[in-house]
Structure formats: structure tokens, C-alpha cells
Amino acid sequence: MQNTRRIAIIGAGIAGLSMAIFAKQQGFDVEVFEKHSEISQIGAGVTLWPNALYVLDKMELINAISAVGVQPCCVQQMNQQGQVNSKLDLLQLSQECGYPSISILRKDLMLCLYEQVKQLNILCHFNTPVDNQDIIKLSNQFDLVVGADGRNRSQAREAIFQTPIEPIYQGFINIIGISTTPSNIKNTCIEEFRGSGLRFGIVPATADTCYWAAAWACDINRNYTTKHWVNAAQCQFKRWPAAINTILNTADIHTCNHIFVHDLDPLPYWHQNNVVLIGDAAHASLPTSGQGASQALEDVWHLTNLLNQHETIPDALSLFYQTRINKATTAQTIGRQLAKQFFSDMPQQPVKMDPAKLSSLWMQGLTTPNMIT
């Protein structure tokens, strides 16, 4: 799109920084507006599946990401006694997809992205909250305004729909943290324990560090601190495998957080005039989908390419929504279906994890890569 060269991006999270990087690499002039004083490091870790690595390859960031993350070899679903119910071979999945999976601490991922932003001399306006009036001003000053300002209080989403669209609580809490990997856990495997309406996941992040999440169904209670919820997790998982108790009993509270998990219903559109939503602002899914960051990166790749291919913004944004809505909605639906299964008292059945079927789902809409990284 020769006449659309200036882009304002609201939000400096994974979606916002990634959009800034790829758009800049493709010849756009980009500025980022972030309400906080620095890049956010909220969250413990992120698993980047092969569809995310496809986009990171196009952004020339695979080597940087690989240097600070790890490539897990498998995903194991286990019961509360620690017995393996099913296993996904991630090396086979890599062969199917053409790209690996990488798990990484969120702060390391954000630092990688921000380092690239600085190398590209992208202007980031920190301490710059944006409200509806500011969005109107930006839409007049820039050819395109991209709302990458998250699921909870997206000003860009409110500007598009003229009313707050509230995220929906899905009935469970996530207590997350970062720990030294227990000696009785393989640091090459993602381990997911489930039973009796509880879930505990352990994901390798560095050579000797993991990030983890404890989850169960509960009502929202804003009166309790993260320390309270870590103590509650210690009680909930007291009779579970030793590795879980080691993690919870030695957790550094400064790395922990508690999240009452919300998502969005699918939206009827993501854009109005020259303002468009990407990432969680457009299609926030539950962590049970495993696809939040990956779908945000797909947004970045598709939106930037469509802007380059089409002469007018309405055409590009309309095609962007048509291209992305089904796949993004599928991730949202899968996340809800799995959460309903995980946090019920019904006997837990292993989730079917076939590499060929996962490859077909995750790589849909992406050009088939011709190499293994």
C-alpha cells in the first residue's frame, strides 16, 4: 500500500512490539504509544508454537529467541499421581510444521523484542496513556492506528465499538510463577498434571529454570493477595507429585502473580475507519488454548502483508478480519472447551495431541516453510 506508510501502535506488549518490528522491516514508519514507563514483564512465560516461529523467522528473530529460550522435546499429560496419560512428540511436530516450538520467560521474550525495536530506531512513547480523544487525534495524524492494548481495558476496542466490551470471566484462577527446575523434573519436557478439577503445568524456560501455573475453579475475590493464593495452591496440591510441592513450597513470591482468567467472545469486526485491533484486544483466548502469543504474531504477519498488497485501508482491514477471524475464533473455542473439561469434577480424559492434525491447524493460512530451524 504505497499511500499508507505511517502507523501508530497503541500498546508495547508482544503484539504491539512485534507489529512495530515487522511493519518497520517492511518499510512503514512506525511509532509506539505505551501507558507504562517501560515494557511490561507481567506474566511468567510463553510457549511459542511453530506458527509463532514461522512469523518470528520472517522477523529475523529466531536466533535471538532460541538463544534465551529452550526447545522442549515433548508435552506430557499426567494424572495427579504423576502417571503419564498421553504424550506429544514435539520433535515430530517440528518436522510436520517446518518450525520448532520454543518456551521462554516472558521477560526474556519482551527484552528480545524491545532490543530489536531499538536497533530499528522505532520511536516508543512511554508514560503515554491513550484515551478515545487521543485515538481520534492519532487517526488524523497517522495513516493507520493499531490497537494492541490488551484484553482488559482496550481503549482502541472501546473507540471502535463506542462502548466498553467487557472480558468474560471463565470461572478459574491461574497462580503463576518462575522457579528453579526441581531435580526430579526433566527440563526438556512440558508437564501438565490434571485431576479432580485442578491443573498444574510446568514448562522449561532456561537450562535450569521453569515457569509454572496452578489453576482451579473459583469465584473472583479481590480481597486476597498473591501470597494468599500461593498458600491456597500449596493446600490444593499438597498430595500431588513431589515436584509440584517443591515448586510451590520454595516459590519466590516476587515472581508470582494470580490472575482471574478472562477472555472475549468473538467480535463482529475488528476495525472502523483507520483503527484496527490485533492480539488480545481483538480475540483474547484462555491460556488453555496455548495460542495467545502465537495468534497475535499471526495477526502481525497477515496485517502487514495485506497493507502492502492493497491500495486502500478499508480493503486491507476488511480482508484482515476475513482472513483471521475463523482461526482466532477456533483458538478461543478450544480454550473454552478445554477449560470446561479441566475444571470440572468429571473424570479427566487425555487431550488428543496428534502432530499431523496440530500442524494442519496451526500452520493453516501460513505459507509452507521450506526449512527446519
UniProtKB/TrEMBL annotation:
<keyword id="KW-0560">Oxidoreductase</keyword>
<dbReference type="InterPro" id="IPR036188">
    <property type="entry name" value="FAD/NAD-bd_sf"/>
</dbReference>
<dbReference type="InterPro" id="IPR050493">
    <property type="entry name" value="FAD-dep_Monooxygenase_BioMet"/>
</dbReference>
<keyword id="KW-0503">Monooxygenase</keyword>
<dbReference type="GO" id="GO:0004497">
    <property type="term" value="F:monooxygenase activity"/>
</dbReference>
<feature type="domain" description="FAD-binding">
    <location>
        <begin position="7"/>
        <end position="310"/>
    </location>
</feature>
<dbReference type="Pfam" id="PF01494">
    <property type="entry name" value="FAD_binding_3"/>
</dbReference>
<dbReference type="GO" id="GO:0071949">
    <property type="term" value="F:FAD binding"/>
</dbReference>
<dbReference type="InterPro" id="IPR002938">
    <property type="entry name" value="FAD-bd"/>
</dbReference>
<protein>
    <recommendedName>
        <fullName>FAD-binding domain-containing protein</fullName>
    </recommendedName>
</protein>
